[in-house]
Amino acid sequence: MYLARFLLLLMGFRQTQTRAMHAQQKLQQLENRIVRLHDHREGLKRALEVGTLHPRRGFALLNGIDSELSWMDSLFKNVLNNTKPAAAPSEHPAAAWARDTVFDAAQLDCIIAIMLKILDGKCKMEDADKSALTAVYDALKVQLGHEFGQCFGDATHTLIENARQNRGENGALVQQISEARVQAEATIPKPVMKAFKQRLQRAMPRLAPQESIRDTH
């Protein structure tokens, strides 16, 4: 009895150490990316000052970097303050994976676009992949809130939520999802989406044996 209790305590201790190690690794990844973004931003500013970069393009690039820095800063604070929810035993393993993974702004947009494609019935992923991607979306929506997505705002997340509740019963909502999916596909470059799907193929956990994520974008 005492041995079993000791083993349970030891297991809990090791799990806590593992979570702490993952948090530290994620903080380091975030810090490194923030530093690189700051350096890139300073380089753009210098290029604007000396006239080697066209102002219109330069300011557009700076705005994009500022948006990503704002999101990275929020994510860094969340991890640092240990505010992320603990993984529930019954939740999909892809949810915990998503919370412990660093995604850039373009990859977050890819997640939203795939969700729209799933809801529009145009996604050719296997069911195991769809379930995992949906769990990833839900976990990041809770963790990031308003910072989830660069090209898509709160209106898109509200549309996704309403579509999941209505399950195709509202014709107008179905049409809105279809239009949003088409717009998302036009917004995200195909090479970006393809590269992200390859990352999901390699790393995203599934409940069922791993299936191939087809290139359907």
Task: Please provide a brief summary of the model.
The chain has helices spanning 2-50, 55-80, 93-99, 105-119, 127-144, 154-166, 171-187, 190-203.
Describe the structure.
This protein is mainly α and 217 residues long. Helices cover 73% and strands 0% of the residues. The protein has 8 helices and no strands. The longest helix has 49 residues, at 2-50. Mean pLDDT is 80; it is low at 1-10 and 208-212.
Topology readout:
Layout: H1 2-50, H2 55-80, H3 93-99, H4 105-119, H5 127-144, H6 154-166, H7 171-187, H8 190-203
Helix pairs in contact: 1-2, 3-5, 4-5, 4-6, 4-7, 6-7
Features:
disordered N terminus; mainly alpha; 2 domains; 8 helices; 217 residues; single chain
Helix and strand pattern: HHHHHHHH
Fraction of residues in β-strands: under 5%
Q: Which residue ranges are poorly predicted, with pLDDT under 50 across at least 5 consecutive positions?
A: 1-10, 208-212
How many helices in DSSP terms?
A: 8
Topology, number of strands: 0
Helix content: over 70%
Determine the structural class based on helices, strands and strand pairing.
mainly alpha
Taking the sheet with the most strands, its summary is: none
Number of domains: 2
Mean pLDDT: 80
Computed over alpha carbons, the radius of gyration is 20 Å
* Quaternary form: single chain
Gross geometry: globular
How far is the first residue's CA from the last residue's CA? 56 Å
